[in-house]
């Protein structure tokens, strides 16, 4: 049984410049947000309960982009997962190393044109072009500690970033 405290997820509603859009009474958040992202340290993406809960959140919150960290899936499992996704979604993945790690980013094709500009074992970086005409770069991080994290930040600093908003985030933080 999947417990709510095991979910550890973050729903991020983004305004044009990438700052959180806060839901308030009598305020339609969809009026201010141009993109909705869900980031989840899922601890195994192939669990039936997790997939059911994920798609219920997508339906309720009208999510455009999903980032799953800690998928714990190898290449064949990732390919099967992506093949079974709903028709109007596309995705990209980074295989786990053994049974740890792994990431997936997928997006709703009818709302988002997403181009992966770089991926490695600690990040997926994508240029996002929303059908509403807004653009940004999204870097989703699932990083190890210390020395390897320094290498990640060096790689990120070397990305050729156009003059558009850049959303960097992952499990604990978005900026």
From TrEMBL:
It comes from the Eukaryota. This is Uncharacterized protein. It comes from Canna indica.
């Amino acid at each position: 049984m999947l417990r709510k405290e095991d979910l550890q997820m973050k729903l991020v509603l983004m305004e044009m410049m990438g700052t959180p859009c806060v839901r308030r009474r009598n305020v339609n958040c969809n009026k201010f947000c141009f993109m909705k992202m869900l980031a989840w340290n899922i601890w195994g993406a192939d669990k039936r309960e997790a997939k059911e809960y994920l798609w219920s959140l997508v339906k309720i919150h009208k999510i455009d982009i999903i980032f799953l960290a800690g998928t714990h899936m190898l290449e064949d499992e990732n390919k099967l997962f992506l093949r079974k996704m709903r028709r109007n979604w596309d995705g990209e993945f980074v295989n786990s190393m053994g049974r740890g790690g792994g990431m997936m980013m997928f997006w709703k094709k009818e709302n988002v044109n997403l181009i992966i500009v770089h991926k490695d074992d600690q990040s997926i970086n994508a240029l996002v072009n929303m059908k509403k005409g807004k653009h940004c770069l999204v870097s989703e991080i699932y990083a190890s500690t210390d020395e390897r994290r320094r290498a990640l930040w060096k790689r990120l600093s070397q990305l050729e970033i156009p003059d558009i908003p850049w959303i960097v985030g992952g499990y604990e933080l978005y900026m």
